[in-house]
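Regression check, protoporphyrin IX containing FE case 713:
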Amino acid sequence: MATLIKHRRIVAQPSPPELTLEPADDPAAFAERLADLRVVAVRFPKYADGRGYSIGRLLRERHGYKGELRAVGEVARDHLELLAQCGFDAFELRAGEDVDDALVAFDDLSENYQSTAAQPLPLFRRRAVA
Amino acid sequence: MYLYDEIDQRLVDERVAQFRDQTRRFLAGKLSEDDFRALRLRNGLYVQRFAPMLRIAIPYGLLSTKQLRKLADIARRYDRGYGHFSTRQNLQLNWPKLDEVPEILAELATVQLHAIQTSGNCVRNITTDHFAGVAPDEIVDAFAWCELIRQWSTFHPEFNYLPRKFKIAVNGAVADRAATFVHDIGLHALRDADGAVGFRVIVGGGLGRTPVVGQVIREFLPWPHLLTYLDAILRVYNRHGRRDNLHKARIKILVKERGVAGFRREVEAEWARLKDGPATLTAEEVRRVESRFTRPAYACLRDIAFPKSKTPFNAWRRRNVHPHRQPGYAAVTVSLKKTGVPPGDVTSDQMERIADLAVRYSFGELRVTHEQNLVFADVQQAELHGLWQELRDLGLATPNIGLLTNIISCPGGDFCALANAKSIPVAEDIQRRFDDLDYLHDIGELDLNISGCINACGHHHVGHIGILGVDKNGEEWYQVEIGGNQGRTTISGANPGAYPGSPGNRGLSPIGASLGKIIGPSIARAEVPDVIERLIQTYLALRDSEHERFVDVVHRVGIEPFKKSVYGHPDQTPADRRAALAA
Ligand code: HEM
Ligand code: SF4
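Current build output:
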């Protein structure tokens, strides 16, 4: 069974996504609808298919999507931190993933050099302020 | 040297801990082979023919002696006492043990080294001109820009699972010493009329099974936009690059499919939305990164006049000593191309001795070149003779830089699981054939590059002579190409140089980056030296003067005369050819 985690907790009864984007989908095509949606999923068909990371950032940063952004498919512990930086806040772990391992996966790296969906100011701009 | 700040260090340390945990989970059976492969590759760990192989990044080729000593120590304690410098400004260890790799990475981190993103489908080690910061023809010091790109690319969350590997090279001089046209992205740092820095952006170059010379998509990108523009290119590639076929997944295929104009349009449209966003670089950040680079404290000296007599020292000075922007100084190439030693290989003992020399002669720093040599960038001309003697004692003063025996070679069948044929012994056979220094100098500048298979790790497509190992019914055969060129490099002329210690007046190669053409059917290993000899003889007969290099002649007359010299008539059999070659 796939487990959904959100805000570092297991979600007991997840609501189904209202829209699921495939890796080849163009987020711009759904832009108008996004304001009305509460749960959008992006599917990762393979462990190393990275298209969904760009889709996540586009949904959040370009199209202003504010609802739950859920990663589904081949989603594993070692993806989570990257996904979170790209704007995902809910993660449907693939079957067989160790949930306890996954819950601590967000703290592997304490900083990001880049501008990301989760932290739009790149490190160098934050450094400059500090 | 760039010196880490507290955050740079912390991130590398955290990465070590992360990989240690991943290895632990793998060994405990909690991570599958496949998943672990994606993770270990991002930390430089391959599994090869006989053992794992660990690829350590030397960011943009810059290395301190402290780091080199650590590498020597690691190679001795965790490996077999040597390392291999590759064309990608990396150091490869061929025999580490998988369960010790986290420990090795932890040791590397203590000297600000790592193996992050040296493999896998992500942005790889940024490479640059090995004379950056010291070359007289420099426009912009590339190092700070390389470091800015290194930070941008390190753990970039969006671009960690690209369709395929991604290589970026930066060049900041008039001559292109970074092979920028055969990288996924090549950047030329330039200055506009007001002296402000910007970049010419080249995309879609690459070697491998489909070699392509990159194309310019922007002539001048003002520096503040460097990272947003890279984001735009990578995003277009990440979303649209092919993932259905490993061999069509590089950006060069996407650029071909879209056409360079179409690709440019897509990138510019994406960039229009990112431009001036938070990732836009600030002058403050550029200054901050620049100021974290240590700089040599040059003495105030004058250039020295060296006698031109024919001595071994002068032969070395002509080939292995390069001009410097600072009066009284020179850059020195430490040749890792001694006959009988695999190109790029260095033992731990040598590394330590080299480190000692770099402390005494070159401010404790050195560089790694994509031609698999080392460079002491800041040597006083008055000390060249002393340095030469010490290098000679270590077998590191072969005066062959730019010459035929300065062979680039991949590890090939001796180490690599993908190889069709060996490459190191072929390099050695050729070096033995051309062991006469006078002859070698007479032949003049010639890049000879060898790859053990179509993946082209040995840059054979851009060798003036390129040799490719192929498999013919389970036997090792070799295909020969001629006329390739890595880019508009500097070449030495016959005249004494701008300062007498220089190898001569240097001009720009009249030929830009180009790919070699295959001269005919593949040949047996034993034939390789003879075939090279034939090509050289043909060249010597055809050149209009000693200033016309082998590659210039090939570009002027085409490959036909060369082809004929090797194969005779078109339906020649291998037996005919062997007889003809032996004659
Ligand atoms: C021994 C283990 C190695 C393996 C398994 C390996 C694998 C590969 C593969 C599969 C490619 C083709 C990529 C493509 O066409 O998309 C490639 C290209 C390349 N590799 Fe290696 N390689 C190894 C060692 C090296 C070494 C030692 C060097 C440097 C001497 C090197 C430098 C390069 C370069 C320059 C290219 C071609 C440039 C390009 O990517 O277009 N590799 N390698
Ligand atoms: S060119 Fe082929 S044989 Fe040589 S290192 Fe690359 S993959 Fe291995």
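Comparison notes: The mean pLDDT of chain A is 95. The interface with chain B takes residues 47-51, 53-55, 57, 62, 76, 78, 81-83, 85-86, 98, 101, 108-116, 120-125, 127-128 of chain A (CB under 8 Å). No diff flagged against the previous build.
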